[in-house]
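Input sequence (310 aa), recorded before submission:
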Amino acid sequence: MLLRQLEYLVALARERHFARAADACFVSQPSLSAGIRKLEQELDVPIVRRGRRFEGLTPEGERVLLWAHRILAERDALRQELSEMRGGLTGTLRLGAIPTALTAASLLTTPFCERHPGVRVSLESLSSREISDRLAEFELDVAMTYLDDDALRHVRRFPLYEERYLLLTPGDGPLAARPLARWAQVAALPLCLLSPRMRNRRIMDDCFAADGVTASPAVETDSVAGLYAHLAGSGGRWSSVISHAWLHMFGVPVGMRVVPLEGPAHGPRVGLVIADRRPEPVLARALLGVARQARVRDALDALVETHLGR
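Predicted structure, token format:
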């Protein structure tokens, strides 16, 4: 069995198309097909369900794929260990982040790259479920997500900050001059919020409910960038409830104000998670070292105080 054959299988499972998988591996399609057939012969099991096109993996193939991810991850870990012994880390750190935490990722990746210039960072925006699955399948080294997510299994958790929720509203709006706003008051404003399928929005809905109201936003989006686009380009029409971490990336649009919200002082914890396995991935360990010194919570809290004019 060759590692190259395992790479072919991983690429095929990802691309779900023989030609695209071959392109991703920089080989011809016949070479990729021959490599996977050779793997089937060596393991004496059918791996791919074949028809006129790729039709998926057999149950045996799914198990082989899991081991392929694991073996290739161990190979990468070995390379990283050796590069560390030579005096400088190399390779690619595979970092996933939920969309609402992605805005703060640069607080970690920038100092990480400065400390380890030989390492590249591959940063992806992923759902909580995707993060859980890809950590289990050795496709991520580390992730930024909600630490109390029930979908997370067999991971180690490292807290970074607690979400704080703020009203972002036009400067001439009815709540702009208040030192504190209630969730019930916010629900009466013309709102643009994230969509209900996003965890952040469901947390906010619980806060609205705790104040006896239900929010009915006129605009819903699955993107923080899409939300800010409406706020910045609305001419003072929309308000929103934001996580304080979004201020790091987007700030406060011209003509708008940030108002603290009455209610829980802090929301759920956001942090780094890595798969609980040994040996610990070298690049993930290096990022955790940076995170311990980055003081992300303090940086975000200070940003809020700046925007509140304190």
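Checked by second reader. The first strand starts at residue 48 and ends at 50.
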